[in-house]
Input
Amino acid sequence: MSAGPVLSVRDLTVSVARDEGWRPIVDGVSFDLQAGQILGLVGESGSGKSMTCRALMRLLPGARLAITGGSIRLGEEELTALDEAAMRKVRGGQIGMIFQNPSSHLDPVMTIGAQIAETIRFHQGASRREAMRQAIEVLRQVGIPDPTARAGSYPHEFSGGMRQRAMIAVALACQPKVLIADEPTTALDVTVQAQILRLLLDLRDSKGLSIIFITHDLGVVSQTCDSIAVMYGGRLAELGPKRDIIRAARHPYTAGLIRCQPGAAATGTYLETIPGQPPTVDAMPSGCRFHPRCPRAGETCREHQPAFISVDLGHRAACHFPEGPGQEAAR
Ligand code: SF4
Output
């Protein structure tokens, strides 16, 4: 009997309070994350990808944002039903999170070793000595050279890449099942970015870690992820195995994103862009939210929201005309 998903998200809805009531900014998002899987969550700025992951951690910024529907199951535990004290144990204990800018998430006046050890003491109740021993071991696992000495360094004494490794060490201190990585390599130069991506792949392989990788960069996704979820206007546009999505995207938005990647343009030609702007929560188009920008849009698209239908094995798309390669649908 195969084990179920590590994380199962169903119809997750996050809304923002407006004078007239709640408006969804993440709208009915569903996906599963399997053990050892890396899922890339992709979309333009404002698509809802970061907000989805903050909701998984129950870390929505501001009192006007709330989870207003759906379910988040971590193993047997329903996270939407936990109180804040229980969620604090989940954060860092069972789900770790890393961000684009480690400096704003590492304490500047605490040594790196002490920050990791504090997390271990909070979640596992280890003694100071044991927590520091484990902290040094985690620093070694994330590739910090001479970890015993570097545990006594402060964040400003580390380079950008080393700080990112240190933040990964804090996130992994208590051996979480799931790591949420929110644009973790965006601020790094290409060489260090490649090293951090390699480290995440090694951690997946050695620890069976499941990772949700949030990014706007499909190049990073194609190097790293097993599956891809594409978000647009707060909804999932497409979800499936990486190979199928990169080779045969069925949703016009995904196809547009792929054409916008630097490697997609022939030498000497201009990169394509998707015309128009993504919608905002207060001005969502009717029907399919992508229709004002979609080259395939028909009358149906303007009036009816497409269902998130299966287009192939394990591959779903929210489109009335999810054409395969070479197909022309009648509109
Ligand atoms: Fe384009 Fe219509 Fe598909 Fe939306 S439903 S992506 S507008 S073809």
